[in-house]
């Protein structure tokens, strides 16, 4: 669907202020009633009471409770849900109400997948940064080791270097992302 022009937005605002029926407005712009309602909200306009439908009114409903990390779907589970929703939209017996719910679900899953991938990218950057810090600390400790005269302190520095080398080897082996987050395995 093409973007709304400035002129169309002004005309829409005028039509809303004139209390034109939402169906008439939608027909005029050759857009769905839902698209027109969404644009009205995005423009910061208020639907006159005469244009509101039951689905436009906010209901108190049950408050949304946060879920635990274990309850979050993996990337694979989110993609499976997304694909199932897309497949359901293709079926001939889908009602208009179901289409709305499925589209909401699709946009929610897409947002979740985006957040999930951003999280994994940030985690990978943090691991790379930590790896560079460990390597830098190892070089620093080796310099200290060369200049240290006390055998006890030398042993302590050598133990720290060994520990850093183990950590570095572990990090270079691959990202330490839990399998469920990386591949979708539970």
Tags for this model:
186 residues; 0% strand; mainly alpha
Please, could you describe this protein's structure?
With 186 residues, the protein is mainly α. Among the domains are: 1-55; 121-183. The chain has helices spanning 6-17, 22-29, 33-42, 75-90, 96-147, 151-172, 179-183. The longest helix is centred in the middle third of the chain and has 52 residues, at 96-147. The chain is elongated and about 90 Å long. The model has no long low-confidence stretch (mean pLDDT 83).
Alpha carbon gyration radius = 29 Å
Beta-strand percent range: under 5%
Overall mean pLDDT: 83
The helix tally amounts to 7
* Succession of helices and strands: HHHHHHH
Question: Would you tell me the structural class of the helices and strands?
Answer: mainly alpha
| N- and C-termini, Cα separation | 40 Å
Count of DSSP E strands? Answer: 0
Indicate the multimeric state.
single chain
Low-confidence regions: none
* Helix percentage range: 55-70%
How would you characterize the largest beta sheet? none
Instruction: Please state the overall shape, judged from the principal axes of the Cα atoms.
Output: elongated
């Amino acid at each position: 669907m093409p973007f709304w022009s400035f002129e169309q937005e002004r005309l829409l605002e005028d039509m809303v202020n004139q209390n034109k029926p939402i169906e008439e407005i939608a027909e005029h712009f050759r857009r769905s009633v839902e698209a027109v309602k969404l644009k009205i909200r995005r423009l910061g306009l208020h639907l006159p009471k005469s244009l509101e439908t039951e689905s436009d009114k906010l209901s108190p409903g049950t408050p949304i409770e946060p879920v635990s990390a274990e309850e979050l779907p993996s990337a694979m589970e989110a993609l499976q849900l997304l694909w199932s929703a897309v497949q359901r939209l293709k079926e001939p017996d889908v009602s208009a109400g179901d289409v709305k719910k499925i589209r909401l679900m699709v946009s929610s899953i897409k947002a979740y997948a985006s957040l999930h991938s951003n999280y994994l990218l940030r985690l990978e950057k943090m691991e790379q940064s930590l790896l560079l810090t460990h390597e830098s600390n190892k070089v620093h400790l080796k310099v200290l080791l060369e200049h240290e005269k006390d055998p006890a302190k030398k042993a302590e520095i050598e133990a720290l270097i060994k520990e850093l080398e183990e950590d570095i080897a572990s990090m270079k082996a691959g990202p330490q992302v839990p399998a469920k987050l990386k591949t979708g395995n539970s």
